[in-house]
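Exercise 7b. Backbone tokens:
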């Protein structure tokens, strides 16, 4: 570790102020999902979900929606909305728009807020009405795969332990793990080191230590793992048009295990 508190390029959150900052941002992000849940139903547009979340984040939480205006680069515009909404075969980074949700859809709502300079990042895949059998299995398996990864987090474990646990849970159940997108370190910066793969070999990769803060956010597909990017330069979809689901939490490595910073009040882990 150097004098800036970094370990192998990873920013550690160890002071009471740093940890409290991340806890507050995590709670804020979780509360957005709690607020929006009753509104995710047939007939609502994802644009309306974005409006409701934006107003809640800005007016009620006094936070900043991190995706809005994020990521401009040569050949790619900045993300134009405050949340991501990924429906059915959309893997991630779906842009809210005028299309209405319909019964049987699944939709991932991805929230990142900035509170007092700290980022909280979380997502949940919702059912719109009653899902099909495959959709329900996919969504439930994805959530449990995320939890399997979280259960591996403790000082002395490795990032490979997390990815291996997710992969070993998902693949025997007939689902594939997306490779192109992964979890990430988080703090004062939205995306920082380390990268957190959702597949891999146990015992390999960066060794975890107290103060590391990162997301675990597996994306599982009902078909093959390959994705493609749409012309909007943001929306990633399954290449074979199969269903995709995602769940995400921000976690902190503690002295004796893990703290899930974005845990919702009604959520059992």
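Sequence design result:
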């Amino acid at each position: 570790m150097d004098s800036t508190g970094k370990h192998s390029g990873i920013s550690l959150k160890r002071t009471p102020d740093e940890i409290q900052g991340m806890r507050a941002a995590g709670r804020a992000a979780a509360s957005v999902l709690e607020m929006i849940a009753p509104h995710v139903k047939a007939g609502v547009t994802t644009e309306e979900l974005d409006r409701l979340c934006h107003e809640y984040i800005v007016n009620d939480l006094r936070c900043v929606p991190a995706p809005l205006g994020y990521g401009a680069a040569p050949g790619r515009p900045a993300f134009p909305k405050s949340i991501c909404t990924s429906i059915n075969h959309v893997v991630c980074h779906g842009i809210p728009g005028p299309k209405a949700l319909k019964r049987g859809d699944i939709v991932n709502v991805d929230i990142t807020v900035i509170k007092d300079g700290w980022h909280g990042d979380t997502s949940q895949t919702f059912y719109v009405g009653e899902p099909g059998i495959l959709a329900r299995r996919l969504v439930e398996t994805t959530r449990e795969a995320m939890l399997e990864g979280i259960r591996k987090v403790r000082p002395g474990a490795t990032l490979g332990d997390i990815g291996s646990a997710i992969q070993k849970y998902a693949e025997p159940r007939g689902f594939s793990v997306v490779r192109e997108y992964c979890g990430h370190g988080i703090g004062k910066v939205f995306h920082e080191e380390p990268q957190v793969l959702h597949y891999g070999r146990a015992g390999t990769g960066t060794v975890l230590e107290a103060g590391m803060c990162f997301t675990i956010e597996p994306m599982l597909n009902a078909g093959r793992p390959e994705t493609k990017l749409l012309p909007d330069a943001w929306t990633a979809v399954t290449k074979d048009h199969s269903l995709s689901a995602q769940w995400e939490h921000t976690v902190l490595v503690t002295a004796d295990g893990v703290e899930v910073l974005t845990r919702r009040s009604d959520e059992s882990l």
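Instructor comment: Helices lie at 16-36, 46-60, 133-150, 159-170. The mean pLDDT is 96.
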